[in-house]
Design brief:
mainly beta, Pnp Oxidase, Chain A, 8-stranded antiparallel β-sheet, 1 helix, extended
Length: about 160
């Protein structure tokens, strides 16, 4: 039996979690895309980073009032990236491989950077990703907005690094 007078060891504190210190949240606008380790630039928006584990329900014999749940199939969201139109054809050419029926699967990383825009803070790795959709920029002769395109990526699994 443990000595009741022995003091419990407090859990270690996380960096920046010291009493009296303020830790600013990360800015959602600092992120970029790497495809197979090559930086493909900064994007204006990223949607769909999500994972859902579907719960399977079952009842055991004789326990009709209790519903058990097991982890079922995993479902990943489609990731949509919006970016300013440039003269680079890398994403377009990659998408056209999918259109032609031979999607090229690549490992893609979405990097979140710190306030300086350079220091990597988090990384989401999309494994065996390929483009499944593309949307062209809205063109308006009287508009003054930047031309924005979007590409949708599907992938087989995701992990987080950083």
């Amino acid at each position: 039996m443990a000595d009741p007078k022995q003091a419990e060891t407090p859990p270690p504190q996380q960096p920046g979690a010291q009493p009296g210190t303020l830790v600013d949240p990360l800015r959602a606008y600092n992120f970029k895309l790497d495809i197979n380790g090559v930086n493909e630039g900064h994007f204006t928006e990223c949607h769909g980073l999500e994972v859902q584990v579907n719960a399977l329900r079952y009842r055991e014999g004789g326990a009709g009032a209790v519903v058990r749940r097991l982890a079922g199939p995993v479902a990943y969201g489609d990731v949509t990236l919006r970016y300013g139109l440039t003269t680079s054809r890398e994403l377009w050419n990659w998408f056209m491989e999918s259109v032609n029926g031979t999607p090229s699967r690549k490992n893609v990383s979405i990097l979140m950077t710190g306030p300086d825009g350079l220091t990597e803070v988090f990384r989401w790795n999309l494994v065996d990703a390929w483009p499944s959709g593309w949307k062209g920029a809205a063109l308006d002769a009287l508009g003054q907005m930047v031309a924005i395109e979007s590409v949708t990526l599907v992938f087989e699994s995701i992990n987080r690094g950083g």
